[in-house]
Protein backbone atom coordinates (compact mmCIF):
# COMPACT_ATOMS: atom_id res chain seq x y z
CA UNK A 1 0.00 0.00 0.00
CA UNK A 2 1.39 3.35 -1.01
CA UNK A 3 1.68 6.45 1.19
CA UNK A 4 -1.03 8.09 -0.93
CA UNK A 5 -3.44 5.21 -0.15
CA UNK A 6 -2.74 5.52 3.61
CA UNK A 7 -3.41 9.23 3.54
CA UNK A 8 -6.62 8.67 1.58
CA UNK A 9 -7.94 6.20 4.19
CA UNK A 10 -7.26 8.54 7.10
CA UNK A 11 -10.26 10.77 7.93
CA UNK A 12 -9.73 14.50 7.66
CA UNK A 13 -9.91 16.61 10.85
CA UNK A 14 -13.18 18.12 9.61
CA UNK A 15 -14.76 14.72 9.01
CA UNK A 16 -13.68 13.33 12.40
CA UNK A 17 -14.82 16.36 14.39
CA UNK A 18 -18.02 15.59 16.28
CA UNK A 19 -20.30 18.27 17.70
CA UNK A 20 -22.05 18.09 21.08
CA UNK A 21 -25.81 17.67 20.78
CA UNK A 22 -26.41 20.28 23.49
CA UNK A 23 -23.81 23.06 23.48
CA UNK A 24 -22.51 22.60 19.90
CA UNK A 25 -18.97 22.32 21.24
CA UNK A 26 -16.51 19.65 20.07
CA UNK A 27 -16.75 16.15 21.49
CA UNK A 28 -13.31 15.11 22.84
CA UNK A 29 -11.39 12.76 20.51
CA UNK A 30 -11.08 10.19 23.28
CA UNK A 31 -14.83 9.95 23.90
CA UNK A 32 -16.81 6.83 23.04
CA UNK A 33 -17.69 6.37 19.39
CA UNK A 34 -21.43 6.64 20.18
CA UNK A 35 -21.11 9.75 22.40
CA UNK A 36 -23.44 12.60 21.43
CA UNK A 37 -22.53 15.02 24.24
CA UNK A 38 -19.16 16.48 25.13
CA UNK A 39 -19.52 16.09 28.90
CA UNK A 40 -21.83 14.82 31.62
CA UNK A 41 -23.35 18.23 32.40
CA UNK A 42 -24.48 18.63 28.77
CA UNK A 43 -26.07 15.18 28.78
CA UNK A 44 -27.89 16.01 32.01
CA UNK A 45 -29.13 19.35 30.64
CA UNK A 46 -30.47 17.67 27.50
CA UNK A 47 -32.21 15.08 29.67
CA UNK A 48 -33.90 17.77 31.78
CA UNK A 49 -35.25 19.48 28.68
CA UNK A 50 -36.44 16.21 27.17
CA UNK A 51 -37.92 14.39 30.14
CA UNK A 52 -41.03 16.61 30.21
CA UNK A 53 -42.23 15.17 26.94
CA UNK A 54 -45.43 13.22 27.32
CA UNK A 55 -47.92 11.69 24.94
CA UNK A 56 -49.77 14.61 23.39
CA UNK A 57 -52.97 14.79 21.41
CA UNK A 58 -52.50 16.14 17.91
CA UNK A 59 -54.20 19.48 17.44
CA UNK A 60 -56.95 19.73 14.84
CA UNK A 61 -56.70 23.53 14.79
CA UNK A 62 -53.15 24.88 15.19
CA UNK A 63 -52.83 28.05 17.26
CA UNK A 64 -50.39 30.92 16.84
CA UNK A 65 -49.03 31.66 20.31
CA UNK A 66 -46.39 33.97 21.71
CA UNK A 67 -44.18 34.17 24.77
CA UNK A 68 -42.42 37.35 25.88
CA UNK A 69 -39.68 37.35 28.51
CA UNK A 70 -38.28 40.89 28.22
CA UNK A 71 -35.87 42.54 30.64
CA UNK A 72 -38.00 43.27 33.68
CA UNK A 73 -38.84 46.95 34.20
CA UNK A 74 -35.94 48.91 35.67
CA UNK A 75 -33.44 46.07 35.20
CA UNK A 76 -32.51 46.26 31.51
CA UNK A 77 -29.28 48.25 31.82
CA UNK A 78 -28.19 46.44 34.97
CA UNK A 79 -28.35 42.92 33.54
CA UNK A 80 -28.38 43.22 29.76
CA UNK A 81 -26.31 46.24 28.70
CA UNK A 82 -23.68 43.88 27.28
CA UNK A 83 -26.15 41.68 25.39
CA UNK A 84 -26.11 41.95 21.57
CA UNK A 85 -29.89 42.58 21.46
CA UNK A 86 -29.88 45.27 24.16
CA UNK A 87 -32.01 48.28 23.15
CA UNK A 88 -32.67 49.99 26.48
CA UNK A 89 -35.77 49.70 28.61
CA UNK A 90 -38.67 47.88 27.00
CA UNK A 91 -41.94 49.78 26.69
CA UNK A 92 -44.12 47.28 28.52
CA UNK A 93 -47.41 48.91 27.52
CA UNK A 94 -46.48 48.80 23.83
CA UNK A 95 -45.40 45.19 24.27
CA UNK A 96 -48.77 44.23 25.75
CA UNK A 97 -50.53 46.02 22.91
CA UNK A 98 -48.49 44.06 20.39
CA UNK A 99 -49.28 40.75 22.09
CA UNK A 100 -53.01 41.51 22.15
CA UNK A 101 -53.10 42.70 18.52
CA UNK A 102 -50.85 40.13 16.87
CA UNK A 103 -51.49 36.98 18.90
CA UNK A 104 -55.25 36.68 19.52
CA UNK A 105 -54.95 32.90 19.95
CA UNK A 106 -52.95 33.32 23.15
CA UNK A 107 -49.83 34.73 24.73
CA UNK A 108 -47.85 34.82 27.96
CA UNK A 109 -45.63 37.51 29.48
CA UNK A 110 -43.09 37.07 32.26
CA UNK A 111 -42.43 39.99 34.58
CA UNK A 112 -41.37 40.78 38.13
CA UNK A 113 -43.61 40.84 41.18
CA UNK A 114 -43.01 44.55 41.81
CA UNK A 115 -43.94 45.44 38.21
CA UNK A 116 -47.10 43.33 38.14
CA UNK A 117 -49.48 46.17 39.05
CA UNK A 118 -48.29 48.39 36.20
CA UNK A 119 -48.39 45.50 33.73
CA UNK A 120 -51.96 44.56 34.65
CA UNK A 121 -53.07 48.15 34.18
CA UNK A 122 -52.12 47.80 30.49
CA UNK A 123 -53.76 44.40 30.01
CA UNK A 124 -57.30 43.42 28.98
CA UNK A 125 -59.58 42.47 31.91
CA UNK A 126 -59.60 38.81 30.84
CA UNK A 127 -55.91 38.15 31.56
CA UNK A 128 -54.92 35.69 34.25
CA UNK A 129 -51.84 35.60 36.47
CA UNK A 130 -49.88 32.43 37.12
CA UNK A 131 -47.05 32.13 39.63
CA UNK A 132 -43.63 30.55 39.38
CA UNK A 133 -42.16 29.97 42.84
CA UNK A 134 -38.46 29.90 41.98
CA UNK A 135 -37.14 30.29 45.51
CA UNK A 136 -35.44 33.29 47.09
CA UNK A 137 -31.92 34.45 46.41
CA UNK A 138 -30.30 34.49 49.87
CA UNK A 139 -28.97 37.91 50.82
CA UNK A 140 -29.26 40.47 53.59
CA UNK A 141 -32.55 42.35 53.37
CA UNK A 142 -34.71 44.68 55.43
CA UNK A 143 -37.86 43.33 53.75
CA UNK A 144 -39.15 39.85 52.87
CA UNK A 145 -37.14 38.37 50.03
CA UNK A 146 -38.94 37.88 46.74
CA UNK A 147 -39.34 34.19 45.90
CA UNK A 148 -41.74 34.17 42.95
CA UNK A 149 -42.33 35.61 39.50
CA UNK A 150 -45.70 36.23 37.85
CA UNK A 151 -46.63 35.11 34.35
CA UNK A 152 -49.49 37.09 32.82
CA UNK A 153 -51.31 35.10 30.16
CA UNK A 154 -54.36 35.32 27.96
CA UNK A 155 -56.18 32.87 25.70
CA UNK A 156 -54.65 29.59 24.72
CA UNK A 157 -56.39 26.28 24.28
CA UNK A 158 -58.94 24.78 26.65
CA UNK A 159 -58.83 21.00 26.55
CA UNK A 160 -59.70 18.27 29.07
CA UNK A 161 -56.94 16.73 31.14
CA UNK A 162 -57.03 13.80 33.52
CA UNK A 163 -56.34 14.25 37.25
CA UNK A 164 -52.91 12.74 36.71
CA UNK A 165 -52.10 15.25 33.96
CA UNK A 166 -53.95 18.25 35.37
CA UNK A 167 -52.70 21.70 34.48
CA UNK A 168 -51.95 24.19 37.24
CA UNK A 169 -51.45 27.95 37.29
CA UNK A 170 -48.57 27.62 39.76
CA UNK A 171 -45.14 26.04 39.49
CA UNK A 172 -42.80 25.32 42.40
CA UNK A 173 -39.33 24.80 40.98
CA UNK A 174 -36.05 26.17 42.32
CA UNK A 175 -34.00 27.53 39.43
CA UNK A 176 -30.28 26.95 39.09
CA UNK A 177 -27.85 28.58 36.67
CA UNK A 178 -27.52 26.45 33.52
CA UNK A 179 -23.80 26.63 32.84
CA UNK A 180 -23.91 24.48 29.69
CA UNK A 181 -25.71 27.05 27.50
CA UNK A 182 -23.25 28.81 25.18
CA UNK A 183 -25.67 31.78 24.95
CA UNK A 184 -26.76 31.81 28.59
CA UNK A 185 -27.94 35.14 29.95
CA UNK A 186 -29.49 36.35 33.20
CA UNK A 187 -33.12 35.32 33.48
CA UNK A 188 -32.86 32.16 31.38
CA UNK A 189 -35.80 29.93 32.26
CA UNK A 190 -35.30 26.28 33.29
CA UNK A 191 -36.76 23.32 31.44
CA UNK A 192 -39.52 22.77 34.02
CA UNK A 193 -40.71 26.34 33.47
CA UNK A 194 -40.90 25.79 29.70
CA UNK A 195 -43.08 22.69 30.00
CA UNK A 196 -45.32 24.51 32.50
CA UNK A 197 -45.59 27.50 30.16
CA UNK A 198 -46.73 25.29 27.28
CA UNK A 199 -49.38 23.75 29.54
CA UNK A 200 -50.58 27.19 30.64
CA UNK A 201 -51.33 28.06 27.02
CA UNK A 202 -52.65 24.59 26.19
CA UNK A 203 -50.03 24.34 23.47
CA UNK A 204 -49.95 21.13 21.44
CA UNK A 205 -47.69 19.73 18.72
CA UNK A 206 -48.54 21.57 15.52
CA UNK A 207 -49.04 24.98 17.12
CA UNK A 208 -46.80 27.92 16.24
CA UNK A 209 -44.94 29.47 19.18
CA UNK A 210 -43.10 32.77 18.69
CA UNK A 211 -40.44 33.59 21.31
CA UNK A 212 -40.17 37.38 21.20
CA UNK A 213 -37.11 37.59 23.47
CA UNK A 214 -35.12 34.39 22.79
CA UNK A 215 -32.21 35.23 25.13
CA UNK A 216 -30.38 31.95 25.73
CA UNK A 217 -32.66 30.06 23.34
CA UNK A 218 -33.91 27.65 26.00
CA UNK A 219 -37.61 28.15 25.27
CA UNK A 220 -37.08 27.50 21.55
CA UNK A 221 -35.04 24.42 22.38
CA UNK A 222 -37.77 23.06 24.68
CA UNK A 223 -40.49 23.86 22.13
CA UNK A 224 -38.58 22.00 19.44
CA UNK A 225 -38.63 18.90 21.63
CA UNK A 226 -42.24 19.43 22.68
CA UNK A 227 -43.40 19.97 19.12
CA UNK A 228 -41.72 16.82 17.84
CA UNK A 229 -42.88 14.42 20.57
CA UNK A 230 -45.06 11.47 19.64
CA UNK A 231 -48.79 12.08 19.33
CA UNK A 232 -51.59 9.62 19.93
CA UNK A 233 -52.17 9.02 16.25
CA UNK A 234 -48.61 7.71 16.00
CA UNK A 235 -47.10 10.64 14.15
CA UNK A 236 -44.71 13.38 15.14
CA UNK A 237 -45.50 15.78 12.30
CA UNK A 238 -46.85 19.25 12.63
CA UNK A 239 -50.60 19.28 12.15
CA UNK A 240 -51.72 19.70 8.55
CA UNK A 241 -51.06 17.85 5.35
CA UNK A 242 -47.34 17.83 4.68
CA UNK A 243 -46.56 20.64 7.11
CA UNK A 244 -42.90 20.46 8.22
CA UNK A 245 -41.79 20.48 11.82
CA UNK A 246 -40.73 23.88 13.07
CA UNK A 247 -39.15 25.04 16.33
CA UNK A 248 -40.22 28.15 18.15
CA UNK A 249 -39.45 31.15 15.99
CA UNK A 250 -37.36 33.92 17.44
CA UNK A 251 -39.15 37.20 16.95
CA UNK A 252 -36.73 39.53 18.68
CA UNK A 253 -35.18 40.77 15.44
CA UNK A 254 -38.52 42.03 14.15
CA UNK A 255 -39.52 43.24 17.57
CA UNK A 256 -36.33 45.18 18.28
CA UNK A 257 -35.93 46.30 14.68
CA UNK A 258 -39.23 47.27 13.07
CA UNK A 259 -40.86 48.23 16.37
CA UNK A 260 -37.82 49.83 18.02
CA UNK A 261 -39.32 53.30 17.81
CA UNK A 262 -42.28 52.29 19.94
CA UNK A 263 -40.78 49.50 22.09
CA UNK A 264 -38.12 50.87 24.39
CA UNK A 265 -35.50 52.72 22.43
CA UNK A 266 -33.03 53.70 24.91
- Residue fraction in strands: 5-15%
Kindly give the count of domains: 2
Please report the first level of CATH classification, the CATH class of the largest domain: Alpha Beta
Instruction: Name the helicity range.
Output: 25-40%
Shape by Cα distribution: globular
The CATH level-2 architecture of the largest domain is identified as: 3-Layer(aba) Sandwich
The description of the largest β-sheet is: 7 strands, mixed
Fill in the CATH topology of the largest domain.
Rossmann fold
Report on this structure.
The protein has 266 residues and is α/β, with parallel strands linked by helices. The protein folds into 2 domains: 10-51, no CATH class; 57-257, Vaccinia Virus protein VP39 (Rossmann fold, 3-Layer(aba) Sandwich), CATH 3.40.50. The chain is 26% helix and 12% strand. It has a 7-stranded mixed beta sheet, with helices on both faces. Helix 7 crosses helix 8 (218-227). The chain is globular.
Amino acid sequence: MSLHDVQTLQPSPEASRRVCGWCDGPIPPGARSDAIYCRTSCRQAAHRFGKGRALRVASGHPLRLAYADPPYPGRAARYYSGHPDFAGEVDQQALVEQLVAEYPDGWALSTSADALGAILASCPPAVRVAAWFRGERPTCSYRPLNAWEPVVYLGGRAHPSSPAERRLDALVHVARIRTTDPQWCTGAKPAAFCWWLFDLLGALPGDDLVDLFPGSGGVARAWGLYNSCQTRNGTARRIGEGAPEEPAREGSADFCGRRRESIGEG
